[in-house]
Design brief:
- It holds the Pfam family ORF6C.
- This is Phage protein.
- InterPro entries: ORF6C_dom.
- The chain contains five helices and no strands.
- It is an all-alpha fold and 136 residues long.
- The longest helix has 42 residues.
- The termini are far apart.
């Protein structure tokens, strides 16, 4: 076997390896693309139960804070009004009829929206009045 034959054989082996690498790269790109498509589809799903519960905890935390705490007179009388107002604003913002219908891709936005909740002035005044009353 001549040097020329050895070089030709080495070049052929290199071509074969390059072709195999190209096939591996192509397969990897296909897998990556499929993974990204699956992730996008998952983001379009409504919230899972655990995510809905997490949102409920955020709502509860904000509502209790707005009412001045759990033991306050306002909490006892107005908690349903405050919770209802928070949920109505969330549903309106995300165009849904329940928190469970919010798309997964909006979960963090929903948490932020709830965390930034501001009481309507009339409700804030009611809460302040109730919490400032002296009981005998």
């Amino acid at each position: 076997m001549s040097i020329e034959d050895i070089l030709i054989e080495n070049l052929q082996q290199m071509k074969d390896v390059k072709q195999q690498l190209n096939q591996v790269n192509y397969t990897a790109l296909e897998a990556k693309h499929a993974s990204e498509e699956n992730k996008e589809k998952l983001e379009e799903f409504p919230l899972f139960t655990i995510d809905s519960k997490e949102l409920s905890k955020v709502v509860s935390k904000i509502a209790i804070k707005c009412l001045g705490g759990k033991g306050t007179p306002a909490y006892k009388e107005l908690n349903r009004k405050v919770f209802s107002d928070i949920y109505k604003q969330v549903w309106r913002e995300f165009d849904v009829t329940s928190c469970a219908a919010i798309k997964r891709k909006y979960l963090e936005d929903a948490k932020k929206f709830i965390s930034e909740y501001k009481l309507p002035r009339a409700l804030a005044n009611e809460i302040e009045t109730l919490n400032n009353q002296v009981s005998f």
